[in-house]
Amino acid sequence: MVRPSDRSCRLLHDGTLSGAETALAGLAQGWEPGFAAARTDDGTATLAVWLAWQAHEPPIADVIPVLANLGLRARTHRCLPSRPGPDGGMATLDEYHMIVSPELAEAALKQMDGLRDILSGLALGDVDSDSLDSLVLTAGLTAREVRLLRTLFRYLRLAGTSLGGRYAHRVLIAHPSYAHDLVALFHARMDPLRANPDNAERLHAALEDALGWVTGINDDTVLRRLRDVVLAIVRTTFYPTPDSAPERIQLQRTLPDRPAGAGHAPSEQSEPAGPAGSAGSAVHAGYGHGYEIGGGAGDALAFKLAPAGLPWLPRPLPEAETFVSSPRFDAVHLRGALLARGGIRWSDRQEDLRTEILGLMKAQRVKNAVIVPDGAKGGFVLRRPPADPGRLARLAESCYTRFMEALLALVDNRADGETHGRAGMVCHYGSDTYLVVAADKGTARFSDLANQVAAANGYWLGDAFASGGRSGYDHKALGITARGVWESVRRHFAELGVDADREPLTVVGIGDMSGDVFGNGMLLSRHLRLVAAFDHRHIFLDPDPDPARSFEERRRLASLPSSSWDDYDRGLLSAGGGVFPLSSKRIELTEPVRELLGVGDDTLPADALVRAILRAPVDLLWNGGVGTWVKASGQEHASVGDKARDGMRVDARQLRCRVVAEGGNLGLTDAARVEFALRGGRCNTDFVDNSGGVDCSDREVNIKIGLELAIGAGAIDRAERERLLAAATGDVVRAVLTDCARQALALSAAERHVVTSADGLSRFVEHLVDTGEIDLDVETLPDAEELTARVAAGRTYTRPEIAILHAYAKRTVAHALLDSPLPDDPAFVPVLDAYLPVSLRPVLHAHFDRHPLRREIVASQLTNSIIDRVGAGFLHRLRELTGADTVQGARAFAITGSLLGLTDIWEALDTHCLGGDLSGGGPSGGISGGSGGSPGDGSAEGSRSRPAVGSSDPSAEALLHCHFVQEEAALWLLRSRRSLLDITAETTRYAEGVAEVAAALPTVLATVGSDQELTAVLRFAEQLYERGLPAPLAERVAWLDAMSPALDVVDVALRNDLEPSDVLHVHTAIGTRLGLGKLGLAHLIGRGAQPPGQSRWEHMAAAALRADVARARSALTEAAMSAPEFDPDAAIERITTGARADRVRAIVEEAAAAPRLTSAMISVVASRLNELVPGR
Question: How far is CA 599 from CA 72, 174, 539, 589, 629, in A?
């Protein structure tokens, strides 16, 4: 057996047709390659080809199709006796004769190198041959150039364009000049030695002219899209570069050789079967020879594209795309931005790999809104997977490794803070240094392989390239994804008046205990009653489980090296339970199971039983598996794109669970989530529920980058780095779970808010559409007509839709912040410090200012705080009402959050919502060398404040209350400060005075405030406390509304050199005497509300009039405080008595009694108040 590096096939000739003996003699003299051709009397030519072989000789059935694809039809064949070769081994010689045209014979003699390259692959077991090979002779292309065209076609096919099959091949074959110029255009753009923009422009024009002569629309589409792809390529591995051949990653094992005598595999088609007489056959002689994993996954060709130049691609268009193809695998990597991250999956979708990855990238983009990078996704598919499991696994590792090598070959590197481009590579895109991958389906154990590739390439991220390896945080050991999902479950049930940690929940699930998300998730509470579950192997039924005993059995299964539902102790199942193969033709249902599922059949096929489980009337449906199981009733199965689950999928309207938790991706379609939510079900989205994993990975990467800076500075060594990473596990887990809980709470607050402000949010959506940030069809969001119909029916945006809007708001805000100097503001140094794990701050603080993603981290953290605390439309409303742009609005958010003490309140809400065991421990501590307790001990049942039985948790209401107060304060600040807000200066200016107002407020309100206002504050605090909020937090939230005028009060004090407490006294007394306290309470009831159908202008007018009322009250206060021989009581008496004051009181009384404040009412109140201001 020869290795692929050996020359095991040579072409031999002596220039005549009788040269067999000479050819054999040539074998002994050094394997001189060639053919021979001669004219015949009938005007044709006879072409002879001799192929010499050592060791394994391919069968004729493998050779003849390859010759046919070259346009050479073999007429005769004979096998000549074996002869000794130059290395002493025996060689055999095959002789093929073909009758061809003289022109083709001449072309064959001219293109011997191309023919030799193609035919030599037969002995290497690495032939990927089809009808495109004929272009070697008709278009004068090399074998490698033909392979380039084949790769372009494979890209088109996997992109879902249906243009990669035999018809498309025939189109290009029929236009050999176009094929030649297309390849020439590729060289003119990408060849480091002959790239020529002028030549590329000339060739582009020539191709455009050639397209003008193409009459068929389908032919034109094929040729035009090939040209489009060539023009969209910005980098490629087609040409060797000085650094394109790093030391191969050796895995210390080889694939077993093919069994002796097995010969070559029968020819397999690499294209859809065409009609009889179609141009050529698709042939692959593959997997025949053994090869080392590190060196034989085929010669992968890769190119990076700018998809913006391919408008015919399905939406959304990635920012950057990499396609990799070899005879053994295809792979695609899509990035929403150059700074992006996401998992790499081993796919089984050979026909629509890019479609699958595009859907996952779309979900990853919104999932990554919580972290620094944008979303990315990659996947590879084996073109001809072997049946043997061991060979399959090793081949997958090999192809994954080649995929990683190709990805890294197309990005730049960093060293000493500088970007280093790829030597010898033409790059039409700007610098591209950040590439991070993660595990996904089928690649959970591949992170170390990826990091070996990064190390071999000297890639600057080192083992941060692929998170979760041997020196990273083990997601399954930490249970981080499942624990993040549980925060969503907690939030859902808290608002239903159920404590998910302490009360029994009936559950059906997708997955088994060996899985990460399912296995860890089913161990987060000892009170879960898992009554049914299924995975790709079994169906599990336990209609009336004992929570304690079943919990222990699930924990036992999770602790096994590998397990399935078939390992469940049958003696622990309740009456009527069982475990059944998913392959069962029919399954007998016991009476308890029929009652559980609400079905009347005595037996059901396995797929029907799965559907019945999904439709079961339970508390929780926990998706911890792979596949799309729920669609909307208006969707066809074919549109879901998951054919394997078509027979088991149900409609969302059939679900009878109260809550859906999405630990797995794409378990429900977007439309299904909306349908479920519109029918009263509670769900978020997959990218919200399972964001814990990506959050953890991103923090790991950024921490590792920081620690490398510390190593470079000599502050720590490599061993200390490992110890510090392990020590930070608990801090990282707490930060991740806090993010998860905060996102869920933000959706609850927004869900409450949108009930009365749908029009305001819809205007934000219109803004996103107008700026091209969002496509309503792609994101399955309602248009204006549908939203109007919903509002008329008493509905509005659903929770899953709000989640999408939050994600897009985060993306747009983060981009705006990064395009400004704001992340460099010294005021945000504490934001960067807060991002660091507490245990690492002493080490990293001095080095993080050199972190290459420092600005991105600040922008991401600030963006998350804005959207999670005050909602997706907050900054847009500030823009509408004041003209402030996103950056100015963010400055106002930071200032008011600090001055009003909202930052402390938010952190207290986070702590209240989170609770539970936040240790970083897992079965293996979550990181190499770590230690800690298992998350699988029901430890979610930590001590937390408990609401009264049956009452819903008030956290969302409290957060929304903070939002309203902050919005008023931010509006005041932006209206009163027209210049760019200086965060540090403004905070310093107001901080002391606001603190004095807060301290004086209870006394002032008790002495000169209205009884109604004080009673409202105390009653609100009591209600929050009774529903579960800790007393100190409840009181702080309740007093916030009374703090609304604090900035105005302090501003008056500063302008007039007065004590803020004195100004507060007068301001409150005037409001009380004129009855404005009643108006304030009425306004509080409807604050943030916008009546359905209210136009943008009406909304803006109402806001401006409310500001007029506040300004008039402030002016009255300032007039009283600035009176000669100041006597507060006398000044208050003077301003609030008389006919004009009586008119104010009367109109305020009438407005306060109205069901809803209107712009007209506010206008009259403002006018009456202004009449009281001296000089007006």
Answer: 65, 61, 16, 9, 19
The pLDDT tens digits of the residues spanning 373-431 come to 999 999 999 999 999 989 999 999 999 999 999 999 999 999 888 899 888 899 998 89
Q: What's the confidence (pLDDT) of residue 1126?
A: 64
Bridge-based pairing of strands 587-588 and 505-510 is: unpaired
At residue 619, the 3 state secondary structure works out as coil
Distance CA 443, CA 379 (A): 10
Instruction: Please confirm whether the linkage preceding 316 is cis (ω < 30° from 0).
Output: yes
d(CA 795, CA 776) in angstroms, rounded, equals 18
What digits encode the pLDDT tens for the residues 236-292?
A: 999 987 665 444 333 333 333 322 333 333 333 333 333 333 344 455 443 333 333
Bridge partners (DSSP) listed for residue 323: 303, 332
Rounded CA separation 400/983 (Å): 48
Token couple for 181 = 């110029």
CATH of domain 292-466: 3.40.50.10860
Q: Is 79 exposed, middle or buried (0-12, 13-18, 19+ CB in 10 A)?
A: exposed
Element of type H or E holding 283: strand 283-286
**Looking at residues 892-912, what average pLDDT do you find?**
96
At residue 868, the 3 state secondary structure works out as helix
Spatial distance between the Cα atoms of 647 and 380, rounded to a whole number of angstroms:
26
Cα–Cα distances in angstroms (integers) from residue 229 to residues 156, 334, 360, in the given order: 9, 15, 23
Given a contact cutoff of 8 angstroms between Cβ atoms, the answer to whether 730 and 789 are in contact is no
| CA-closest candidate to residue 610, choices 660, 650, 644, 662 | 650
| CA 876 and chain centroid, separation | 25
Alpha carbon distance 887, 928 (integer Å): 42
Q: Which of 304, 377, 476, 1078 is flagged as catalytic?
A: 377
Contact between 669 and 635 under an 8 Å Cβ cutoff? The reply is: yes
Tell me which DSSP letter residue 318 carries: P
What are all long-range contacts of 989-994, with beta carbons under 8 Å and residues at least 24 apart?
Answer: 989/1054, 990/895, 990/899, 990/1047, 990/1050, 990/1051, 991/898, 991/899, 993/1046, 993/1049, 993/1050, 993/1053, 993/1054, 993/1060, 994/899, 994/900, 994/1043, 994/1046, 994/1047, 994/1050, 994/1060
Selection from 688, 740, 753, 763 nearest residue 966 by Cα:
753
Check if the beta carbon of residue 528 is closer than 8 Å to that of residue 553. Answer: no
Task: Tell me how many helices (H) and strands (E) the chain has.
Answer: 44, 26
Within 10 angstroms of residue 406's Cβ, the number of other Cβ atoms is: 24
Distances (CA, A) of 831 to 848, 857, 901, 986: 12, 9, 16, 18
Cβ–Cβ < 8 Å for 133, 69: yes
Q: Rounded to an integer, what is the distance from CA 78 to the centroid of its chain?
A: 59
Going by pLDDT thresholds of 50, 70 and 90, the confidence category of residue 297 is: very low
The answer to whether the beta carbons of residues 585 and 539 sit under 8 Å apart is no
Is there a contact between 574 and 542 (Cβ–Cβ < 8 Å)? yes
Phi, psi (5° rounding) for residue 662? -110, 85
Known active-site residue 377: yes
Distance CA 505, CA 491 (A): 14
| Backbone dihedral angles phi then psi of residue 575, each to the nearest 5 degrees | -55, 130
Say which CATH class 497-681 falls into. Answer: alpha beta
Judge whether 139 and 111 are in contact, CB under 8 Å.
no
Q: Tokens standing for 683?
A: 């769900």
Whole-model pTM? 0.84
Q: Compute the Cα dihedral for 210, 213, 217, 219 and give only its sign.
A: negative
Question: What single string gives the DSSP state of each residue in 722-760?
Answer: HHHHHHTHHHHHHHHHHHHHHHHHHHHHHHHHHHHHHHH
E strands, 449-554, are 505-510, 528-534, 538-541
| Rounded Cα gap, residues 573 and 527, in angstroms | 16
